[in-house]
Amino acid sequence: MNDRIVTALLAAERSGHPASPSALGSVDEAGTILATLADDPLAPLAARALTVASGADPDAWREPVRAFAAGLARQTSVLALQESVDALLGGSAAADAGPALHTAMLTGLDDAVGATPSLAAARLEAAARVALAKLARPYLVLDRLAAPPEELAEDYLDPLPRLVGIALEMWGSDDEVAQPLIDVLAALTATPVEGDALHELACRQMRRALSAPDMPAATEGLARAAATFAQAQEVDEDRDDSAAYQLACEAVIAFAHADWTVVATSTEALTKVLSRRGAWHLGAHLPAWRAGARDAETAWLAFVLDLRQAADRLREDSWLDARAAAGQLAAVFEAERVIDPAPGLLAAIRPTIAATVAGNAVLLGQLERMVDHDLAGGKPVLPPAAAAVLVAAHAARARSTAEPTSPPTDRDAALGRILRLAPSLLAFGEDICQHLAAMLDDDALRDAGGVAAPLRSRQPPHSTLKRMRDSIVTSLEVNPRFTGETRAAAIALLERTLTFLLDRYDRGGPLMKGMKNIINVPARGHRCRSRPTCSGSSTCGSLARGSSPAGCTRRSRTSRPAGLT
């Protein structure tokens, strides 16, 4: 082993940065030596150095990266293996390391399960991450996850329920794939990880319920899921996540039954759970790649706030409530179950629920609040088409099932017109679109599409905004009052503010037709009111189009703030 290279790795570790390629030397010399460190305690340092070197010159360092990944099969330390895998999959070397890592982690796994169960579990997790990142086909991982868990050590079983749950979310749309995994979860209920297995089974039941085509089927499925979540909590009383989902399922059912007492009880209990959310995983090791995102805090807060408003809304003759509540629960689940198997290669993976009915109701609920707020202001700025969408929604709901449906040719013509003039309206469903096509002329349809566009399906978090948000949240965490509901509300406000600024910047105009353009390019020679001494022409400190987010440097209309790419 070259002492100079080891010294460079240790010096870089003390400085807090990976060793640079210049400190390591030539790829011919350093590459071979770094690859031999795969089974050494210094493996994480070597992995980070290889990732940096690969980012600088991927072609030259490809073979050393692959050799190091293959050599991790000989690593005997769980922590060293996990840190090395995090480094390899967290940088640009992920595509080169992935296939070799997948093969190395699964080769000889049966022997490792018996001899070193904790290490075997870490190896299976690493192989699963590679498959989730689509760097290898998932069949070998699925076969291993579907193996009978009887007589296996608890250290190996510990992460198994969550890995099986992730596999169900990613690949479980095929019943032939899903059923063996569900059978494994059922078998795990007779092992020391019973609580975790029950929680994953309940999540599967809840997902299927939220994907049901109608609310009666959804409420029936949610009742089964709530019962299984209750079982998980009975087995492991510290499972606040099971308690929260149980209460959420019961709240949606209460919406459907117009039972305000249960809605109020669920709200109060969920608020308490939210207040101790920060302690859910306190003191427990949870790999960063499968830790719930901060987005989950925002989603839970939105759900609780909707429950609090339920009293007034349940007094209205409204059909949106139960479906909107189901949509909020789907949003919570999707945010809670975010995984990030290979940050260096792809964005975080958010499982999706095909809750079309619930999703439409959430959009309509948002639109209803927009219209109410707009009318209450005294000077409406939304076009009349906004209210027309709500009229069409209620008309579609009120249509009798016994009423003959429109001829297919008429329906196709109506939907084709919507697709041509206002495709964003399709998010509300075909029945509503058909009503709108019959009610509105071309101009009104375009206006309705402009209203619906900002409400369309949720977009994945912008990577730069996510970093900005997380940095600000980290700074706020030093305040002891930044906990529970206060924390969630602050994160929600921060996220909405950053998203709004980016949206206005990208849009380059008002939110929708008729509204004021609050972020624009000031005229040349304009002086900032907040800075009398400024001689530039920009909005200081904003993300305004044509301005610098850090000052008053004049930019062209087509330039972007640093980092927003």
What does this structure look like?
This protein has helices spanning 3-15, 21-24, 27-36, 43-56, 58-71, 78-89, 94-106, 109-115, 117-132, 139-145, 154-157, 160-171, 175-188, 194-210, 215-235, 240-257, 260-275, 295-308, 310-314, 321-336, 356-376, 384-398, 408-421, 430-439, 442-452, 463-476, 484-507. It has 565 residues and is mostly helical. Helix 15 packs antiparallel against helix 16 (240-257) and helix 18 runs antiparallel to helix 20 (321-336). The model is unreliable at 530-565 (pLDDT under 50).
Low-confidence stretches: 530-565
SSE sequence, one letter per element: HHHHHHHHHHHHHHHHHHHHHHHHHHH
User: Quick check: average pLDDT?
Assistant: 78
Count of DSSP-assigned helices: 27
Fraction in helix: 55-70%
* Cα-atom radius of gyration: 27 Å
In brief:
This protein is mainly α. It has helices spanning 3-15, 21-24, 27-36, 43-56, 58-71, 78-89, 94-106, 109-115, 117-132, 139-145, 154-157, 160-171, 175-188, 194-210, 215-235, 240-257, 260-275, 295-308, 310-314, 321-336, 356-376, 384-398, 408-421, 430-439, 442-452, 463-476, 484-507. Helix 15 (215-235) runs antiparallel to helix 16 and helix 20 packs across helix 21.
Overview features:
mainly alpha; 63% helix; globular
Topology:
Blueprint: H1 3-15, H2 21-24, H3 27-36, H4 43-56, H5 58-71, H6 78-89, H7 94-106, H8 109-115, H9 117-132, H10 139-145, H11 154-157, H12 160-171, H13 175-188, H14 194-210, H15 215-235, H16 240-257, H17 260-275, H18 295-308, H19 310-314, H20 321-336, H21 356-376, H22 384-398, H23 408-421, H24 430-439, H25 442-452, H26 463-476, H27 484-507
Helix pairs in contact: 3-5, 4-5, 4-6, 5-7, 6-9, 7-9, 8-9, 9-12, 12-13, 12-14, 13-14, 14-15, 15-16, 16-17, 16-20, 17-18, 18-20, 18-27, 20-21, 21-22, 22-24, 22-25, 23-24, 26-27
